Amino acid sequence: MKYAVLALLLFSDRATIAQDKVIDPGGWTKAKWGMTEAQIKAAFPEAKHIIDNGDPLLGLEHYEIGPIKYRVNFYRDMKDVGLNGVALHAENGDATPGVYAEAARSALLSALRDKYGEPTSTETQPPSLTGVVREWRWLMPQTGITLSYMDAPERQYRFAFLVYSKRKKSDQL
Fold this sequence. Notes:
Oligomer: single chain
Order of helices and strands: HEEHEEEEHEEEE
Number of strands: 10
Radius of gyration: 19 Å
């Protein structure tokens, strides 16, 4: 009986330690929620205005995480002009875009699990005309993280997309 109680205490301590390791980033790397454009530029001197779907955004091109290059977009709330989201998507390798997106998904998912533990939720949308979409989500007190991967083999299209967002009151843990 003593050993069972001791084992239970040891196990619960490890679970607590594992939960304590997860630290809400409050943004993405050096970009923190609420930062102004000037503050983002100071944190990322290489940031510049780029066009994304016709919209001018502050962003980074060719941002490297490991061997993979990403395009990074910084999103601001137009009411208070503060940073409220950061999106990364793998820049397609010219020769093998599908393989590049799969490698990005695999590397990002592994890194996120190492840093934040298992996702709060996962979802696989049923196959449709656009393909299959898989999502992994982590919710923390200030930050939501969503990794999305779309696989449309008929179109020979794959896409990896990672979004860090300032958590809303409506987001459920």
